[in-house]
Amino acid sequence: QNEIYRAGVHGRTPSVPTDFATLEKRAKAKMSARGWAYIAGGAGEGRTMAANRAALDRWAIVPRMLRDTSDRNLEIELFGQTLPAPVLFSPVGAGALAHDRADIHIGHAAAELGLPYIFSNQGCAPMEDVAAEMDSVSRGAPRWFQLYWSTDDRLVRSLVSRAEQSGAAAIAVTLDTTMLGWRPQDLNLGSLPFARAEGIDQYTSDPSFWEIVAERLKDAVSEKPEVSIGAIKTLFSIAKNVPGDIRRNLTAPEPRAAVETFLDIYSRPTLSWTDIVTLRDMTSLPIVLKGVLHPDDARKAVDVGVDGIIVSNHGGRQVDGSISSADALVDVADAVEGRVKVLVDSGFYTGADVFKALALGADAVCIGRPHMYGLALAGAAGARDAVANIVAELDLTLGLSGQTDVRTLDRSVLKKV
Ligand code: FNR
Q: Where does this protein have coiled-coil stretches (predicted)?
């Protein structure tokens, strides 16, 4: 990790800024207004995003001195895989807003670092293509799949089985996005990503998606022809991988209705614990629930037999005024008592932030926006370096705090201020 630090000492400029504030500022200058609104934006007035920062700042690291920390361990074991650091790439949909080949580049970046990339269900490339790219860097490079539970179980089964075939080491089910949150920055621009089909390739590369759409097309004809047919046709016309027989009938663009049609399929508002039990029977892969914030939900997750939890408020993008990720992490880690793996994301942007998360009870930390900003600035190398910088700072923070192993950090290294 110290290579980055030493390069700086020798006057080499890094591919992306090494602090989050500058990284964010440069990415903003580079990105389109639409891309910036979607990627940087939060829900409502941005209070959850602010809370994520504030809660982390209420914990201070208390370094210990005169300890030999020259030999440090950052490695962890997670679901049978050894990772070089306790860090993962959060699933991020609609990445094409930052870069044309977003998912392919991020997969490449993650594989170079040996850290898992969680493929988004709203990826801009089919997971098979991303997996192949990762394998070309390093065979079997770790990857997971993130699932949005569709209103149609056929699609869920198909996606899960594709993930298994693509070498996913776990399935992360996102619980907090049964509907999209109130996103003023997108709404004010009149833009949501799906309006231009960013983030639907994972679906449109799936045969069962087209089976479901074809059925809905039939229903639409009898129920509400003027709106529904236009909507579905538009969805087809903007999507890649449209089967030929359907493509022949395309006309009338009507983006708003198309978005609605897509939203109708992508996520299930009635999602319940029963569905998680169903998933347990559907796959032998470890199941991780993403978006858990309440300790009772965490206990329930343990009871239904999941393997891990990602404490997350979706980067402050779903419920404005929600509990911060760090505060929820404390509650969840205490409730779970080590029975399942606890990961966290939402607002962890530096090595010190990751250090605090581990000390508060996380086994690993997922990083979202930093890798997207790196991607926007410098493609695969930028996504890689944005995360490599965080890992390098984690390593220094560990040693300078008098600690030698990420696995043994606990709350005794912190003080609430
Ligand atoms: C996300 N997130 C997300 N989560 C998920 O489960 N599936 C998805 O498709 C997406 N898409 C997505 C797009 C964009 C642009 C962002 C910024 C976030 C949430 C993501 O996985 C993660 O929870 C947060 O990004 C973590 O917070 P930070 O690190 O961005 O603050």
A: none
Minimum mean pLDDT among 209-213, 318-322, 325-329, 340-344: which range?
Answer: 209-213
Let me know whether 242 and 306 are in one domain.
no
Check pLDDT > 80 for residue 175: yes
Q: Tell which wins on pLDDT, 254 or 333.
A: 333
pTM of the model: 0.93
pLDDT digits (tens, 9 = 90+) for 120-165: 999 999 999 999 999 999 999 999 999 999 999 999 999 999 999 9
Q: Which of 266, 284, 317 is the last residue of a domain?
A: 266
Task: Tell me which residue has its CA closest to atom 19 in ligand 1.
Answer: 314
Q: Three-state SS across the chain? A: CHHHHHHHHCCCCCCCCCCHHHHHHHHHHHCCHHHHHHHHCCCCCCHHHHHHHHHHHCEEECCCCCCCCCCCECCEEECCEEECCCEEECCCCCHHHCCCCHHHHHHHHHHHHCCCEEECCCCCCCHHHHHHHHHHHCCCCCEEEEECCCCCHHHHHHHHHHHHHCCCCCEEEECCCCCCCCCHHHHHHCCCHHHHCCCCHHHHCCHHHHHHHHHHHHHHHHHCHHHHHHHHHHHHHHCCCCCHHHHCCCCCCCHHHHHHHHHHHHCCCCCCHHHHHHHHHHCCCCEEEEEECCHHHHHHHHHCCCCEEEECCHHHCCCCCCCCHHHHHHHHHHHHCCCCEEEECCCCCCHHHHHHHHHHCCCEEEECHHHHHHHHHHHHHHHHHHHHHHHHHHHHHHHHCCCCEHHHCCHHHEEEC
Of ligand 1's listed atoms, the one at least distance from the Cα of 98 is 15
338/387 same-domain check: yes
Write out pLDDT tens, residues 13-47. 889 999 999 999 999 999 999 999 999 999 999 99
Residues spanned by the domain of 199: 191-266
Question: Tell me, what's the pLDDT at 4?
Answer: 77
Shortest-distance Cα residue to atom 6 of ligand 1: 174
Ligand 1 lining (C-beta closer than 6 Å)? 38-39, 90-94, 120-122, 146, 174, 290, 312, 314-315, 345-347, 367-369
Active-site positions? 314
